[in-house]
Amino acid sequence: MATISKINELSPHRNGWTIRVRVLKKWSEMIDGGGDILRFLLVDDHLHEGDWKIITGFTVELSPPGFRFAMNHHTIIFTGNTNLQRSWGVITDHYMSFKNFRSIMNGVYTSNYPIDLLGYLDGVGEIEVVTDHTFTLGDNMQTSRVTFTIKDLEGRTLECEARGVLGIQLYNKWWRHGGTETFITMSDWMVYTDRGTNEMKIKDAGGISRFEFNALYQDVYEFRAAYFNESDPTGIESDGSSVELDWSP
After folding, report:
1. What residue stretches are annotated with the Replication protein A 70 kDa DNA-binding subunit B/D first OB fold domain (predicted)?
2. Three-state SS string across 179-195, please?
3. Which residue spans within 44-73 are E strands per DSSP?
4. Amino acid 163: pLDDT
5. Cβ contacts of residue 90 below 8 Å, gap of 6+?
6. What pTM did the predictor assign?
7. All domains of the chain, ordered by start, with CATH?
8. What pairs with residue 121 in β-bridges?
9. Disulfide check for 125: which of 54, 81, 147, 160 has CB 3.0–4.6 Å away?
């Protein structure tokens, strides 16, 4: 069997790589000039194990300047020779690495790749229709937008927005929850600077962004317990795989 390489070992200087990865997310995007491109976000056991694929017959290129979907600077390109085979894996809680609100507000995460967040969902605004020049499915370039705020354990709040179908899903789910206390996990969202207020805010990164309410993760149990100043109501002990949260002021 061919030698299996780590994702962080890949480079565009040769072909013939073989990797074993978990397909974390799959989504499609429209590209300039027409047509769609199918994107994947992959992770290997350098981070953790999950559901895995052995992939051969692909090429590696440097990611173009600007926004990218992961910290890795390389992009894997599937070709007609690419082959995917089922492989083994171990299910884990999640792959997210939740960022500290204070660091976000101080401009630490103004990088070109998405981040993950965990917080208390403090409020959700009404659905608005806005002009978005990146939205090309209609001639008027209009899409839906929903703004919402999330709060950390020290009372810091971040203003967030979700557009398109994602925003409508968040709005509908919020109102279905009614008066239920909601803790939200957000995977792969973007930090940006509001030009009007110079504040750091959060927005979705297109098809890669996800959210979940009151997820059954140890991190959420611990956050909820600390938020309400109570012991962990689940009685679940961490097995060491949970992401450590920085709650310092």
Report:
1. 6-45
2. CCCCEEEEEEEEEEECC
3. 53-62
4. 92
5. 49, 50
6. 0.61
7. 7-86 (2.40.50.140), 101-228 (2.40.50.140)
8. 150
9. 147
